[in-house]
User: What shape does this take?
Amino acid sequence: MDTKRDILGRVYLSFIGIVLMGSLVLGRAVYIQRVEGNYWRALSDSMRQRFVPLDAQRGTIYTEKGEMLSASVPTFDLYFDFQADGLREGNGKVFFAKIDSFARSMSAYFGDRSAAEYASDFKAGYKKGDRYYPLKKKLSFEQYKAFRSFPLANLGRNKSGLIVEVHNKRLVPYGLLASRTIGLSREYILSDGKIKKMNVGLEQSYDSLLSGRDGQRMVRFIAPGTAIPIDGTELEPINGKDIYTTLDLSIQDITEQALLQQLEKFEALYGTAIVIETATGKIKAIANLGRRSDGSYWEDDNYALRYTEPGSTIKLVTLMAVLEKGTSRATDSVFIGTAQTAQVGPKSVTDAERSIHPVLTVPECFAHSSNIGMSRLALKAFGERPGELREYMHRFRMDEPLQVGLSTSGKPTFVDLEKKGSGLSDMLSMSFGYASTVSPLNTLTLYNAVANGGKMMKPYLVHSIRQGGVLYRQFEPTVLLSAVARPEVIQAARKAMELVTTEGTAKYVFKGMPFSVAGKTGTNKIWDGPYTYDDGVYQASFVGFFPADQPKYSCIVLIRTKPHAANIFGGTLAAPVFREIATKLYAMYVDRPEPHGVVARADSSLSLYAGYRASLQRVYSRLGLSFVDSTQRGDLIQVRAQNAQNVWRPQQVPANTLPDLRGMSLRDAIGQVDRMRLGIQVEVIGKGKIIKQSIPAGTTPTRGSKLTLELGGS
Assistant: This one.
């Protein structure tokens, strides 16, 4: 019995022990799952391997001369991981030792909260164990650099628990100037509530080239927030390509300001102005300004590519078409009458003003913008087959969307002129600016062809694409039509356009000009969007070129008036903007005497280059240039012109002494400064070679001093 009882006691004891052990294990499992579950799941996530992206740097948009129009700058978002091992070890020894001084630094630098408020929030976050506590967002590089010197922040990520997220912000340094053409970043909200950005303009059209290709790297997370890259897994990002436009910053500024002043003066709804180089088709300026609800103006849409009824500027098509067909000659006369309204075929046609004479020549009909005169010429030429005028529209590329790298608004439209019962009447309306829609850029392209002796150039906005300074693609001038019409027709059209500014609808605006201008005014009622002809909204325009005898630039100005505006005419609303632009461009770019009989000296004391011997030897060898090496020693070389030869001289630079940086590239100069290991801060002004340095050569700068390098030349 004793033996049996002893055995049963041991069995019961073992059973109870097993039950207790099982209960303990089960309880621990429930505790880990329910209480510590989030912590261990996060730790599990942090211990695995995964690929992380390596962002590619977005390309920059420049003018043709290299001025920056749009570039990416980094911004920094900062977070605290209060569960980081460095903050938790030793019961938060580092955290509690540094947090008060860190809070004082935050308060002193940012000035938005007191040190006590900062410290209180940080300690509360630490107590809760927040893993992604938001600290600061959208810091600039200078702010981030200052932040990294604060107590705690200067300990590095592992010990401080700081998480840094770097984002690229697109910067348009010139603000309003051509911002719609370059590309605005517009934000909109998706159905799930997330904010998404959409590029427009060149930023959108060339997005794939500007974006480059992101890289990736596999990392192994050994602790929360601590990752170690795995060697051999990197796929380096390919940075985006740079876009060099045809825009000229000075011309863009002149164009934009002239347009803006007129829009503000008359409270117009919107306006656009385009300047292109006559011989090449390069778009040198393109301004698009729309009125906002607060009365200010901004580049909010591509009005230059918007299709609207063109008004009287289309009369150039009618003039050239009838002269090209031969039904009328430039010396012919047209009966206008003095009643201001006349019956032309099936249509009653009205002029804006009574004719100065009952009979006008063909060029005078154009110069005085007579609807009666131009429709009579069209009736004579196309009365039997109205659709032929539409064929001339096509021949002159008025119905062809011009691809310049910007999205268009709508498409060109033309009434069916072959339709029985209305075709003839619609053709007559089309002859003086209605029953069709074209874009200002299409209109300007035709006028520029006349300025260019009949050769129609395709307008283009992108000059070249480069990557890392190396040419990737070059865009050259493109001829759309070698001759839009016979030479005598082009000559007659040019004379008629000059007559507009000397005797016609724009004579008062261009009176007293120091150079000749050729062009055409346009005024028409608007029926599109929310407006009908009864709402009193007009489109005033002027398009032409200058100087008229040797055209350098062609320009169009188009302004849409507010309802029932006092000034609605192209000759008094749009033409003054054209005059302002033309006058300033003539003074800056056209009226410059060419130097004659001046021969540059081969030996110039201003010729100075500098760099490393090995680099200069490669360059001179590649280019096949000769030089005189005055010494075979020394790594740092200066090159000066002497007796028509390139003479190399060494720079002897003692330790911790700043060399003569003049003539060097910025890259070589920075290398020389870094070798001194004095923490010198370098400020750069301009571009090109270094022509001036703020700290004289041969001196020893103090640690942390500031060195300003001025660049210039080529």
Observations:
- The domain at 50-244 is CATH 3.90.1310.10 (Penicillin-binding protein 2a (Domain 2)).
- Residues 594-606 have pLDDT under 50 and may be disordered.
- The chain is about 35% helix and 25% strand.
- The chain has five domains: 2-35, 50-244, 249-590, 602-652, 653-714.
